Amino acid sequence: MKKIYLASDSKARKKLLKILGLKFKVLPGKIQERKKALNFSYAKLVKINALEKARNAGRKVKGGIIIGADTIIVQDKKIFGKPRDLSGAKKMLKRLSLKPQWIYTGIAVIDKEKNKELLDYEKTKVFMDKLSDNEIDAYFKKVSFLDKAGSFDIQGRGAFFIRRIEGCFYNVVGLPLRKLYRMLKELGAVVLVLASLLSASIFLSGCSTEYNIVTGEEERYYYSTDKEVAMGQAIAREVEKEYKLAEDPLIQKRVEDIGKRIAAVCDRKEIDYHFYVLEDDEVNAVSLPGGYVYINKGLIDKVANDDELAGVIAHEVGHIVARHSIKKLQAMQGYSILRLLVAAAPGSGQVGNAADLAFLELLTGYSREDELLADQLGTRYEKLAGYDPRGMIHFLEKLQEVHRRQPLRPKSYFKTHPYVPDRIRVVKQELGEEISFKDYINIEQSPHK
């Protein structure tokens, strides 16, 4: 097996190679980077820099494969690299947040034995939210500006203000993995890469196929139940650092008592369920991997009785039973979720950024089909637990009325769910009730068969 050398001291690039399970040595290529395109295209600029870094590092070894990379950000024909100081980083981020920008990364791979050089590049378009000075100050209190082109990190807290991207996610992190794989394959290093991917799968405890009792389908999971619970614990710790738990013991006991009754009749009993109330005015609720359910006090203030509250709690338990959070996190870019898995391991204290990002992913909601399935399951569990399942319909109608009167808020319960008439129709179908004309207004999805 050939030795691999990374001609970069970038923390992000080192982590990306570790994700693939590659064994490598860091051998920074010290060069004077070209800062201006001059007569070059942006693509050629980053390729030249990457090649010079790889060549510089390659002079220090007799054999092996050397990987060099260089990243720039371009906005309105201006090139942004790494900021020199905190003041420059703040100004850079402020400007970048105003308009979309392009991320260019050049990759050079040199095989010393074959005396062969490969050169390529990747580009990705990034769209940010417009940031205030206060938001930028708060960001840099948590994140170092060092070693970051453009002074932001999409794989960490930078994900909070990156609206969307067009292109390769890993290119924004600093090393487009698909492009790198293709180059290694061309050099005949496919066996090496596949062996590394196998190591990564071992790290994930294997990809298993399991029968999902509520969907009636075989589904593939990269995380065992034990890992799911550990992941949920890690995210829950960060949630409780960021959000204040309700101090009223009676409210907390009310939610716990209802939650335990729901959990006792659900289809997934191999995990322990935990129910908490957050001191937050948003009308919202969220479920985490491994059995954690959080209900905002703002939502509890809206319910008229325990039947309505049970409907909300049962809906969130439905998500956990169907493992929707795990499927959503599996769909996240692997870099972030692997950081979370590593951080959740015993003895690790570096869970913060990854757990924050995972919680943000869950706050942005599940797919519409997942939401409707959770409504079906919630209705079923609420009835089995001895509550009136029409309480869910009453609460949904109440939400619909509130929704009509108020604008959407950033983390609104409405934002992440299908249209209310669609949800009410699903509940009625689960109960075997007659469906009226208004139940078919604004229908977006069919319930899970």
Summarize this, please?
The protein has 449 residues and is an alpha/beta fold. Helix content is 46%, strand content 16%. It contains 17 helices and twelve strands.
Give the H and E element order: EHEHEEHEEHEHHHEEHHEEEHHHHHHHH
Let me know the average pLDDT: 78
Oligomer class:
single chain
Q: Work out the radius of gyration.
A: 25 Å
| Tally of helical segments | 17
Give the class from helix and strand content and strand pairing. alpha/beta
How many strands appear in the DSSP assignment?
12
What about the largest sheet? 7 strands, mixed
Which strand-content bin applies to the residues?
15-25%
* Overall form: elongated
How far is the first residue's CA from the last residue's CA? Answer: 50 Å
Helix content: 40-55%
How many domains? 2
Low-confidence runs of at least 5 consecutive residues: 191-211, 342-351, 408-416, 443-449
Explain the overall architecture.
- With 449 residues, the protein is α/β, with parallel strands linked by helices.
- The chain has two domains: 4-201, Maf protein, CATH 3.90.950.10; 221-440, no CATH class.
- It is 46% helix and 16% strand.
- The chain has helices spanning 11-19, 42-58, 86-96, 133-142, 169-173, 177-186, 190-203, 225-242, 249-265, 297-300, 306-321, 324-331, 334-344, 352-363, 368-384, 390-405, 420-431, and strands at residues 4-6, 24-26, 65-75, 78-80, 101-111, 116-128, 162-166, 208-212, 217-221, 274-278, 285-288, 292-296.
- The strands form three sheets. Strands 1, 2, 3, 4, 5, 6 and 7 form a seven-stranded mixed beta sheet that branches. The protein has a three-stranded mixed beta sheet with strand order 10-12-11, sandwiched between helices. Strands 8-9 form a two-stranded antiparallel ribbon.
- Helix 11 crosses helix 15 (368-384).
